[in-house]
Amino acid sequence: MKAIVSHAFAPLDALKYEDVPDPVADGRKVVIKVEAAGVNYPDGLLVQGLYQMKPPHPFTPGMEVAGVVESAGPEVKGLKVGQRVATICSLGGYAEKVLADERAVFPIGEMDGGDACALLVAYGTSHHALKQRAALKAGETLCVLGAAGATGIAAVQIGKIMGARVIAVCSTEEKRKLALEAGADEAIGYETLKDDLKALTDGKGVDVVYDSVGGAAFDACSRSMARNGRLLIIGFASGEIPKFPVNLSLVKEYSVVGVFWGNFTRAEPEVYADNMKELIGWYGEGKVKPLIEGRYPLTDAAEVLKRVLGRGATGKLVLVP
């Protein structure tokens, strides 16, 4: 089969499209013929050696896929050959086929493969962040940085489902329009972020901030929190990991909360499974709808990753073998 392969931690252009051995189903594992592989910001960091996980080489990046069960190991009980499914795989997604443990595989029925990929990581991250880490309450104010990206759109939609007033923050007018279409109550830019948040909350500050950007935007939000607020640390798309003056948390009495979705799925698999059931239910009811910006050939993986890392993408990007 064909796959994207990293032979060394290197720039994205060093990725290779080449033949690798087909996976073989054994035990409780299934082989999935990939219809769509989701592209995520950490994928680009991983292949450059900039992520917290550093796998041995060679490896194939990609952490989420949707497709059809092609074969099943002898101990598989809950899945059948020919069934459409989606799965999280810490590696291996950018390929024509993926090996997955049935316990990490979700049936998706007729759901679009790209939508299924988005629900796994982008929506899974935002859902966990707002539900478990922030305990977002109806009537609270939620500020979403990077609100036109895949996780940002998810945070906007989930925030509205949970009853929050959502302020979306985006870098361009086009992106702000997308965030409003996703359900945001207001959409603003980064230029005067601290002043705008103060004005929009009548000086009270923001109850929950969803920060996947870091850098100067984090600095502004750290000075714009309400008492008992929760500043969620999702990632650092700006490329700058900010330094936090802890006296702000003391004086304003708010919490800075880390969100590492991958660790959550491993540490609390039952809660993760319940989250996915809720997300899939919301999708079926039309309450959440991923924005799939584009579907690209597997051979374009490096160029697509460049767009994601350069913050040029809106919504979800998907690779199609």
Structural summary, described in words:
This protein has 321 residues and is α/β, with parallel strands linked by helices. The protein has two domains: 2-110 and 291-320, Quinone Oxidoreductase, Chain A, domain 1 (Alpha-Beta Complex), CATH 3.90.180; 122-262, Medium-chain alcohol dehydrogenases, catalytic domain (Quinone Oxidoreductase, Chain A, domain 1, Alpha-Beta Complex). The protein is 32% helix and 26% strand. The chain is built from ten helices and 15 strands. The chain has helices at residues 41-47, 113-133, 150-161, 173-181, 193-200, 215-222, 247-252, 261-267, 269-284, 301-309; strands at residues 2-5, 16-19, 29-38, 64-72, 84-88, 97-101, 105-107, 141-145, 165-169, 186-188, 206-211, 225-233, 255-258, 292-297, 316-320. The strands form three sheets. Strands 3, 4, 5, 6, 7, 14 and 15 form a seven-stranded mixed β-sheet that branches. Strand 8 (141-145), helix 3 and strand 9 (165-169) form a beta-alpha-beta unit. The longest helix has 21 residues, at 113-133. Residues 10-319 form the Enoyl reductase (ER) domain. It holds the Pfam family ADH_N. This is NADPH:quinone oxidoreductase family protein. GO terms for molecular function: oxidoreductase activity.
